[in-house]
# Entry
Amino acid sequence: MSEPIDKFDHKEIDAKWQKRWREAELFKVTEDATGPKSYVLDMFPYPSGAGISVGHCRNYIPSDCYARFMRMRGNNVLHPMGWDAFGQPAETEAIKRGSHPRETVPKYVANYKRQLNLVGISFDWSREFNSSEPDYYKWTQWIFLLLYKRGLAYRSMAPANWCPQEKTVLANEEVQGGLCWRCGSRVEKRDLPQWFLKITDYAERLLHDLDGLEWSEGLKMMQRNWIGRSEGVEFEMKVDGTEHSFRVFTTRIDTVFGMTFCVFAPEHPLVVRITTDERRAEVEVYAKRAQALSEIDRMATEREKSGVFTGAYAINPANGARVPIWVADYVLMGYGTGAIMAVPGHDERDFEFAKKYGLEIRRVIADNSSLADVPLEKAEPAYGVMVNAGEYSGVACDEGQRRLGEWFEAQRTGERKVNYRLRDWLISRQRYWGCPIPMIHCPSCGMVPVPDTDLPVLLPDVDNYQPTGTGESPLAAIPEFINVNCPSCGGAARRETDTMAGSACSSWYFLRYADPKNDQAAFDPAKAAYWLPVDCYVGGTEHAVGHLLYARFWTKVLQDAGYITFGEPFLKLMNQGSVLGLTPFRKPRENETLSVGQEGILVRPEDVPSIPQDQVFWRWERMSKSKGNVVTPDEMVEDFGADSLRIYELFVAPFEMNIQWSSEGMQGANRFLNRVWRAVLGAKFDREWRSKLEQPFDGKAKSLRQKTHSSLAKVYEDISGFRFNTAVAAMMEWLNELQDFQSSGGSSAAESEAIECFVRALSPMAPHLADEMWERLGFSGFLLGDRLIDPDPAVAKADTVTIAVQVNGKLRSTLEVPAETVGPELERLALADQKVVQHTDGLTVRKVIVVPGRLVNIVAS
RNA sequence: GCCCAGGUGGUGAAAUGGUAGACACGAGGGACUUAAAAUCCCUUGAGGCGACUCGUGCGGGUUCGAGUCCCGCCCUGGGCACCA
# Structure
């Protein structure tokens, strides 16, 4: 060792070990290895031109630390990575740049992979795949057909955002303030035939199975609310003087006697048929205006209620009352039946509506029967006793609900029903860069699925995939693609031209890693049975109700079809916090209006100097390419090395917490690793330390051994629980003690033990440096292929403890006592303590609380 | 408006109901150096010469003891589909 050891050469060490790991195929795993399997999975990224940021690293570094740790604890760990490469952003970007996703995607993928290797992530690249490759999307299509054959895919008309200028369908993201974000024209709604997947058939199971998952309660709650199960009664109402009837759903059938009007969603098909001639013009205008509003606008609470009377009346089946039918945009066609019974006395929105339009408000619920005629100042949705309810008056609400449910069922005009707010999953996109939907429209046979043997339906490799102007996918303009013979009758037919949303590709990718090269099936059931379900899934909360729900749905369908034996794909889910970057904004100009929640106009950092200083302000926002606030790991790795970045990201904050990016702490992480380097390599290391541990240790060596073993226990526990920040802190404390030991001239087997244990424990966090030090200590091989050392609880146990001594709850003194000191002895010592004597002088000791190993609290007055 | 997280030094943060601020960053002082970098040592919640006092968003409560538990507020961040 001729070179100086005051600092490690991170560039040399990173490159050296990354090369060796690659050459040794260190990260490759197989099913036949020993030890229990563990599947540690990161949500696969969408590769964009900006590359991965230090924000992505906050996902991949901790999960890599965990995966490496699990492997070093004897598990057979699957830790794969792939690319979510289909999707609208890639297509939009390519159109803008005049390139093609087929060319840009592989470039971006190569860059992502380079960056991930740069920070030393232990992915098994032999299992890598890309969702936009036919080898993969063949099986996405196969699963779509499986859903179709099981009656879970159907086609239905649904509105899409339509830009009349560009003559194209827009994603919600492309609509801002009702305007197209590119050309600024007013976005319209246009009905198109679209494909849906029947996730609602699985609502109950998706809800129920959440209970068994090791996910955060907050996230489970989000899914529960999204599924939105409610129990109630759906019943039929007749439109007075016509043959028409409609159905309404309510969770509060006990309030049915308080119904003073009904409300239809503006899109309700009955609206045009029941509206009277004198009301027609007004209703039509209203419906048209409502249609132009986005759903979010219609939902906005602050908005004042609005509506129009149709001129028609309905009959309340419970009491025969004749109630007016209104149309209002606060009722949505997509939820329930698209029509409601309005009970203004006991529903806040109905109350507000009734107040505005002077409709009757009746009390039908009260705390007790004597309050039946107390006027209502506001809606009272509480439960109590039914009043003004005919023969039900005086009946408790919950009993009334049951009896009314039975009554409707006996009358055959309604039934008790469970309702969900979850809607079917709209999976079609009128886009080029997606997985083609494998269906054929035949004039004589109708809808015909592409036979499995004809899969994949290849996405045609064309240069021009601009919008068609008809609302159809660009694929509709490619004759070679659309013209096909019907697989059933052989006649001329037409291919489906919609592609699938990106979320289809990501709804089963976790299965493919088990068997990524299989060209006979999506996966070998035996391999899937070995690796799955995912033991630990790591990703952000932004997927709480999209991806995470869809993936659970597909898993259950595959289970029902017998391909897998489990119904939940992700047993444990960990959500990392975001990394926020400082992002420049400017104040709006006079002609610009901000939408709700927006505080300024985003500007690119390079434009800041050209904007008047007082117009610019900075905010912390999630790092993303579109915000121009991305910091890449490349520069951090260049300056400080992969391991410094890893330590910093592990240490900076709790895993699940958002952080504001600052590279100041990088110095500290780098300094820590340099101290490790000197403490480990500057010592006289004795490989045979194990055989020399029997010698009597002096106090210093003994306490170093205690620190070594207690730190191992703490670090292992913390990594297991994803508490990486305190795991790193424990390593730092351990190192401080080792350095103190060394600077006081100590040298013994205890020091060598500490060094070997430390280097091994550091390996999941800082693998490059750990392997380098391992080699320099005279060992060979890779630490990842080796085991961590088990802490010895007997050694980890401290001999003495510090006992806090309080008087009336205030700390007055501390006692340094042997760990096994019993309560009565602690009490005696505390009462004899000089500080205690001072503070209890003139007082009577009333009570002494002793917590052995912790504290003594003397209550005196 | 509803739902979910949070609120602790100059900063990131730590703390099974039991010594608030571990571990770091930054700052100040010192050693080494011609000097700087690096490294090492000391100080660093506020007030007070001190004994001590005060201090975890605010107000109550439970407890021998509350950052932690309960009730009522305020503020910040995230999510949302007015869900009948």
Q: What stands out?
A: Chain A has a mean pLDDT of 87. DSSP finds 27 helices and 34 strands in chain A. The first helix of chain A runs from residue 10 to 23. The two ends of chain A are 68 Å apart (CA to CA).
